[in-house]
Design a protein that fits this description.
BirA Bifunctional Protein, domain 2, seven-stranded mixed sheet, 10 strands, 30% helix
């Protein structure tokens, strides 16, 4: 068994701004070595649309005023990719991983996140795959997971969003990931079974840890920073 660990922090439903600040704090501590192990934040967000570095104005279909009336926040962020939606019923995973301990290749890292997602979906009986030319995960031609990352000094943050029981109507407000005509789906829609985000997070964490040859360990934000003190 690997002596290296993946410290898993579950956050429940949390605002985007709060988690973005937390990611940046953890990444900074990972860069300096104050946090000695790789970290996975696993959570759900309150409804929010995020605009990555490649976002185009026309891919935000709804106005800011309309989104505000629907209780959807809007954030511009440093991750790669275009526009996406996060909300309850969606597993959001933010791996904060030091690629210097694995492989210093962001394309390789993106493929690892896709593979962990594909392996997770297989556990729920869903055959998923990549789509040539795009980042993310699809099943039967529909997109089920979106991925966008950022890195500094080879430490990653941001990550992936896997639709579990998400209200997919929110994706009507955007052109998801800038892909015209894309159809979004979820685990619940594909299986017609009730699946929780908590269970999906447990499976995903195990698959991610396995791919990176890490031992998964549940912890908390307080314990992360106690270890860094």
């Amino acid at each position: 068994m690997s002596e290296r660990e993946l410290w898993i922090v579950r956050q429940g439903v949390t605002s985007y701004a709060e988690i973005l600040e937390l990611q940046r704090r953890i990444a900074a501590a990972r860069i300096t070595g104050e946090i000695s192990q790789d970290v996975l934040l696993a959570l759900e967000h309150s409804p929010v649309i995020t605009l990555g570095r490649s976002s185009k104005e026309q891919n935000l279909v709804a106005s800011k005023d309309f989104l505000a009336l629907r209780g959807v926040e809007l954030h511009e962020v440093e991750r790669g990719g275009d526009v996406t939606f996060h909300g309850p019923g969606q597993l959001v995973g933010y791996p904060i991983i030091d690629l210097k301990r694995h492989k210093q290749d962001l394309h390789w890292y993106l493929r690892q996140l896709e593979q962990a997602t594909i392996d997770t979906l297989a556990k729920f009986g869903i055959q998923a795959e990549r789509s040539t030319g795009y980042t993310g995960v699809w099943t039967k031609g529909k997109k089920i997971a979106s991925i966008g990352v950022h890195a500094r000094d080879w430490v990653t943050w941001h990550g992936l969003a896997l639709n579990v029981s998400t209200d997919l109507s929110f994706f009507d407000f955007i052109v998801p990931c800038g892909i015209a005509g894309v159809v979004m789906t979820s685990i619940e829609r594909e299986t017609a079974e009730a699946v929780t985000v908590e269970r999906t997070a447990e499976v995903f964490a195990a698959q991610l840890a396995s791919l990176f040859d890490l031992t998964p360990v549940e912890t908390s934000v307080a314990e992360l920073f106690e270890a860094a003190a």
